[in-house]
Amino acid sequence: MLEHYKRRLSAQGSYIGEVIKKQSDMIMDETFKRDVACKKCFIDGELVYAKFFKHRPYTLNKFYIDYRVQFMTGVHYPVGTLIKIPDDIGNYNTWLIAGRDDDSQFVKYLVLKCNLVNDKEIKWIYKNTLFSSIGVLLTEQHRERESSDKINKYPESEREFWLPFTESAKKITYDTRFIISDNEITPLVYKVSGLRDRDPEGIFRVFLKRDKYVPEVDNFELRIADYYKSSNIPVTPPEDKSGTSVITCSGSSPLLKIGGSFRTLFATFYDNNGEVLSSIYPSWDFSLPEGKEDKFEIIIEEDEVKIRALKDYGLIDSFVEVHVDDENGGFYSSLRLEVVV
Questions:
Q1: Are 188 and 181 in contact (CB under 8 A)?
Q2: Considering the entire predicted model, what is its pTM?
Q3: Of 199, 229, 259, which marks where a domain is finished?
Q4: What is the CA radius of gyration of the chain?
Q5: CA pair distance 317, 338, nearest whole angstrom
Q6: For the chain, what is the domain count?
Q7: Domain range spanning residue 197?
Q8: Each residue of 60-108: pLDDT tens digit?
Q9: What CATH number does the domain containing 333 carry?
Q10: Residue-wise pLDDT tens digits, 106-129
Q11: Is 46 left (phi over 0), alpha (psi -120 to 50) or beta?
C-alpha cells in the first residue's frame, strides 16, 4: 500500500513545485478555450487556439506597443513565425512572432502587427529578380548626424523593418532601395543602412535611411525602386482608360469568403471615345494561389464568370487575379479578389 502511494505521488511530480505546475497546466488546458482572450488563429493554414492580449511593462520598441500570445500547454512555435489573429469584428490580420517570454509557468510570445501586407508588401530587386515580403515597419526616428567637418549637425530619418529570416530576406543587401510611400507627389524612398540577422533568432532586421526618388529608375506605381534598371522585369506602360475594359464584381467589395457563395463578375468594354461596346465577347483567365488551384470553383458563362472559394483556411489572405480581354488582346484589364474568412 505504501509503495503504491509513493508511485502515485511520483507520477504527479518529484517535488512540490513540479506537482503544482502540472496541476496548473491541467487547469489551464481545461479552461483555455473558455477564456475571453482566446481566439481562433491560423499558422500556415492550420487552426490554432491562442490567447491574445496587450502587454505594457516591456516593449520591443519604444515607439511600438507590444502584444502577447499564449498557446495551450506544450504548443510552441519558433520566433519569426507569422500568425493570423482576428480583430474585434472578425477580420484576420497578420502578426509576426518577434520574441519569446520564458515565463516560469506559462510561456508567452511577443507579437508585432504586420503593417506591410497584401498590396503594401515591401518589394525589392536583387540581380534582376523581384522579391517581396510582408513584415513590420517601425515608426520613423529622427537622429542628429555630424557633418564631415565634425562641426555642423544635421537631422537624418531612420526606420527599421522586421521580417522573417527566410531565403528571400537574405537577398536584401546594403545597396537595396525600397519605395515605402503612398505619396505620388513626393514618394518616400529608403536605402538599407544596416542589417542584423538572428537578433532575435528567426528575425531579419533591416535598418533604413532616406534616399532620393529617381523617376528614371524607380517605379512608383508598382512601389519598386530601381525597377527600370532591371533587364528582365517587364516595364509597365502608363495606364490608359480608353479602349479598355472594366471588371465589375457583385457585392459591396471584391472579396471571396472561404466556403461562401459565388461572386459574379461582369466585363464592360469601351472604345477609344469611352463608349460602351456590346459586341465584344470576353476572354477570361485566372491567376490562382500556387498549390491551391483546386480550392476554387469557377463557372464561365457567355458574358460573366462565377467564382467561389471552397472551405480551406489555408486560403486566408491569398488573392485571385481575374483577367479579361477580347480575342485580339486589345482590351485587357484585371481585378484582384482577396480571400477572407
A1: yes
A2: 0.60
A3: 229
A4: 26
A5: 7
A6: 3
A7: 118-229
A8: 555 566 799 999 888 899 999 999 898 888 888 899 999 998 876 788 9
A9: 2.60.40.10
A10: 889 999 999 887 778 899 999 888
A11: beta
